[in-house]
Specification:
By secondary structure, the protein is of the alpha+beta class. It contains eleven helices and nine strands. A hairpin with a 2-residue loop joins strand 8 and strand 9.
Length: 408
């Protein structure tokens, strides 16, 4: 089992690391400082300038769509991409700089695997070019969406159209003014249909009549403008029947093809966030003094730093193992490994970030370091794409199958 980076990609990785550390990270604070200027849900001229200049340089260097491991992509395996995604985790704007940002990567994966040629022309091509953004709508306010069989947004056939009625929330990226298309999990089958065949996925242009953005959901008090997580109502929204992906009842099949890579991409970036938190914690502990000593020499700070390093190394290896399992092509075999790292990477990164906040004191919860925003993101990640309890359940079921002939 080879968990190392293909050496032919080492120069690309070095350039990604240089861009993240020398260019992108320094622009994060300026980008967010622009949010309160004018309309929070429109990009300011300076925000657009920052993003487009970074993306232009990434394209010129061939550092574009690195996530795509299919034919015609840059040629990285999932293991290779893990090293790149870790670097991208160390700056907020880095994933979009390289067109490797969620939820677009997952949506592009769906269009690649399941979309018609018309869908690829209309949506995949501009997404791959970084010209538009997209959102994935699954979670609903009135049902426990961690059990996706509860999804209830109605989608009924009416002649040549489907008609959608219901609400979705936590639609990440739907606030972005560049968001042009939604992929929506809907219910098309009744109670007489097997529960895993009742749902479908359909492609909905964001300008379709009947779509109403009710509000931006706040993450620990931050609406995360201009990207956002929107609460959306669909009232008699009509879309052509050809916008249905694969056909009615195929929603769970598509979801598994989409969520596996997306989950592990989040985890890869979380490792990078943990590294950033540890770096900031070490720098702070050596530069700041209290009670006549550097902070590193006070209390249990030596232990916190040592534990952080060991936890990061363990999480990285687990992430690489999950990536390697994905590269073997057996999605069922890879699933428990993805669930393991989906629990561990955000949990470990959050713990290390919290220790870094503690080292900075009041400054750690302010806008003067990236730690507060990172903390909120990582805590949220323990819920996104399945809460910890759901993934632990999957890991336990896989483990118990080894000891019984019956499904656990």
């Amino acid at each position: 089992m080879d968990l190392g980076l293909n050496e032919s990609f080492a120069p690309m990785l070095a350039e990604v690391r240089r861009m993240v550390q020398d260019e992108i990270a320094s622009l994060d604070a300026e980008y967010f400082a622009e949010v309160d200027i004018g309309d929070r849900w429109s990009l300011t001229p300076r925000q657009s300038e920052i993003l487009e200049s970074l993306k232009s340089r990434a394209r010129e260097k061939g550092l574009w769509n690195l996530w795509y491991t299919g034919a015609g992509g840059p040629g990285l395996s999932t293991v290779d991409y893990a090293y790149f995604a870790e670097e991208m985790g160390q700056a907020h704007l880095a994933p979009e700089t390289f067109n490797c940002n969620a939820p677009d990567t997952g949506n592009m994966e769906v269009f690649h695997k399941y979309g018609s040629e018309a869908m690829k022309t209309a949506w995949l091509t501009p997404l791959m070019a970084g010209e538009i953004r997209s959102a994935y709508l699954m979670t609903e306010p009135d049902v426990a969406s961690s059990d996706a069989t509860n999804i209830a947004l109605s989608c009924t056939r009416d002649g040549g159209d489907y008609v959608l009625n219901g609400e979705k929330w936590w639609a990440t990226g739907a606030g972005d003014p560049r968001c042009a298309v939604y992929i929506v999990m809907v219910r098309t089958g009744g109670d007489d249909v097997p529960k895993h065949q009742r749902h479908s996925m359909i492609v909905v242009p964001t300008d379709a009549p009947g779509i109403e953005k009710l509000r931006a959901m706040e993450v620990y008090g931050d609406d995360e403008a201009p990207h956002g997580h929107m609460h959306i109502r669909f009232t008699d929204v009509r879309v052509p029947a050809e916008n249905m992906l694969l056909g009615e009842g195929r929603g769970f099949e598509i979801a598994q093809g989409r969520l596996g890579p997306g989950r592990i991409h989040h985890c890869m970036r979380a490792i990078g966030m943990a590294e950033r938190a540890l770096r900031l914690m070490c720098e702070r502990s050596l530069q700041r003094e209290a009670f006549g000593k550097p902070l590193a020499q006070l209390g249990g700070n030596f232990d916190y730093i040592a534990d952080a390093r060991m936890q990061i190394e363990q999480a990285r290896l687990l992430c690489l193992k999950a990536a390697w399992m994905m590269d073997q092509g057996d999605a069922r075999a890879a699933a428990p490994w993805i669930s393991q790292i989906k629990v561990e990477a955000p949990r470990i990164a959050l713990e290390i970030t919290d220790q870094a906040v503690q080292m900075f004191g009041a400054m750690g919860i302010s806008q003067d370091t990236p730690l507060a925003r990172q903390w909120a993101h990582l805590r949220t990640l323990r819920l996104a794409d399945g809460p910890d309890a759901v993934h632990r359940r999957q890991v336990a079921r896989a483990e118990l199958r080894k000891y019984t002939n019956a499904p656990a």
